[in-house]
UniProtKB/TrEMBL annotation:
Cross-referenced InterPro entries: DUF6350 (IPR045931)
Record flagged with keyword Lyase: no
Record has Thylakoid as a keyword: no
A Pfam family assignment: DUF6350
Protein name per Swiss-Prot or TrEMBL: Integral membrane protein
Transmembrane segments: 12-30, 42-63, 75-96, 108-129, 135-157, 189-215, 235-260, 299-319, 339-367, 387-405
Keywords assigned: Membrane, Transmembrane, Transmembrane helix
UniProt organism field: Arthrobacter cupressi
Length: 424
């Protein structure tokens, strides 16, 4: 089979499977009279719009009813469920592995080209068929934006199967680095280790935010159940509502990350939820909103420690895995060790904090959006404030972790020595 055709078949398979995952829950609600409109074409268009939404395509709501007064309103639905976006990503990851297995190094682009063309055509066709007077869809957005999660999944899957970039695209990074000067290699090693440490800080912050979110959900479990009972959605309706909330679970983790950093997040125009207090207006009857901390929080400021702890771990990681070539270079230029050690540590903290802040800001930008109706046109954290707060707190933690790292390493070695001595 030609590689372009195999890529086209793999992408068509991924598109159909992801569409079925969206259609089946909606079909269950439709079959149990969960929608007022009982027409099949309404269900098909709704499923297509949901498929585009999980791929990051904004939907222009031209006319909707807002509130109990049923006043017409309009807006853009751009709050994407990042959890459901994992469905096309994982399907593309599988397709990328299969295509990499079937291709030579210099032929993989043929399979990728066929796959991306078919997936883009599927998105454009879905937008053309599913657009209505109430929901306007930009066909160019529908053609191009789904290629981001799908293409990223294919690249990651292909790299996973190939094992290295040289086998994937024919570029030997090791040979290229070997041809550079020693100073360039030292600088590259330093910045690469700082970027990895910043990623460690971000992943640790996300893990701590996820734990904080789980604790908050457990504390407010009775309020969440009360909202479920008040909705009276039935077993199937409740299950679909739970699936939709799970789809937004990564968004909620990023909301919690921004909350724990001190930047906070908004749930509507003019609202703000942060560790020092929460002030929001009326919210829709969505069960997960029952877990929102309200009022003045006595111990909310303690959450600011979480990004600092993540930075401490990143600083310790850099001490163990990286090489502070900037400190070495500065020590050669200036003989005052107390000065060079302090400056190099502060620069390292600023660099790792900046990396973590930029990554957090990018994730916050992905997690925020608009529900398209009423006040709910601003939902989520502010990317710039989230990046600034997290960068500052992670930087403080890096300075502490890198400075305390030698003492922690010494204690660990003494403990290992004691254990070895105890054996004899």
């Amino acid at each position: 089979m030609p590689l372009w055709l195999q890529g086209a078949l793999e992408s068509a398979q991924a598109a159909i499977i992801s569409a079925l995952v969206v259609v089946l829950p909606l079909a269950g609600v439709w079959a149990t009279d969960g929608f007022e409109n009982r027409k099949v074409d309404f269900l098909a268009r709704l499923a297509g719009q949901a498929w585009l939404l999980i791929h990051g395509v904004p939907l222009q709501l031209a006319s909707v009813n807002v509130g109990t007064a049923a006043q017409p309103g309009s807006g853009v639905l751009s709050l994407f469920p990042l959890g459901l976006t994992l469905i096309p990503f994982l399907l593309a990851w599988r397709a990328g592995r299969r295509l990499a297995r079937a291709s030579y190094t210099d032929q993989l682009w043929q399979a990728f080209l066929g796959a991306l063309l078919v997936y883009g055509a599927f998105g454009a066709a879905t937008a053309f068929v599913c657009r209505t007077q109430e929901v306007v869809i930009n066909i160019w957005f529908a053609m191009l934006l789904p290629l981001i999660p799908f293409g990223l999944g294919m690249v990651v899957g292909s790299r996973r199967e190939a094992g290295s970039w040289s086998r994937l695209i024919g570029v030997d990074a090791v040979d290229w680095i070997a041809r550079t000067s020693q100073h360039s290699r030292w600088a590259g090693s330093y910045f690469a280790s700082a970027i990895k440490a910043g990623s460690v800080a971000l992943m640790t912050s996300l893990a701590l935010a996820a734990v904080l979110l789980a604790v908050d959900l457990g504390i407010h479990w009775t309020e969440i159940i009360a909202v479920y009972e008040g909705l009276k959605a039935g077993a199937l309706g409740g299950a679909v509502l739970t699936i939709a909330q799970l789809g937004y679970l990564p968004n909620l983790v990023l909301f919690t990350l921004a909350w724990s950093s001190g930047a906070g997040f908004s749930l509507g125009v003019g609202s703000h939820a942060g560790p020092l207090g929460t002030a929001v207006g009326p919210l829709p009857a969505i069960p997960v909103f029952g877990a929102l901390p309200t009022g003045q929080l006595d111990f909310g400021a303690a959450a600011l420690v979480l990004p600092v702890l993540a930075g401490l771990l990143a600083g310790w990681w850099f001490l163990r895995e990286g090489e502070n070539h900037f400190d070495e270079w500065l020590s050669i230029k200036i003989r005052a060790r107390w000065f060079t050690a302090a400056v190099s540590t502060l620069v390292l903290g600023a660099l790792i904090g900046a990396v973590a802040g930029v990554l957090a800001g990018a994730l916050a930008w992905m997690a925020r959006g608009s529900a398209g109706i009423g006040r709910l046109t601003e939902i989520g954290p502010d990317p710039l404030w989230t990046a600034a707060w997290l960068a500052a707190e992670v930087g403080i933690g890096v300075v502490i972790g890198y400075a305390a790292g030698p003492w922690l390493e010494r204690r660990q070695k003494l403990r290992e020595a004691d254990l070895e001595a105890a054996k004899y």
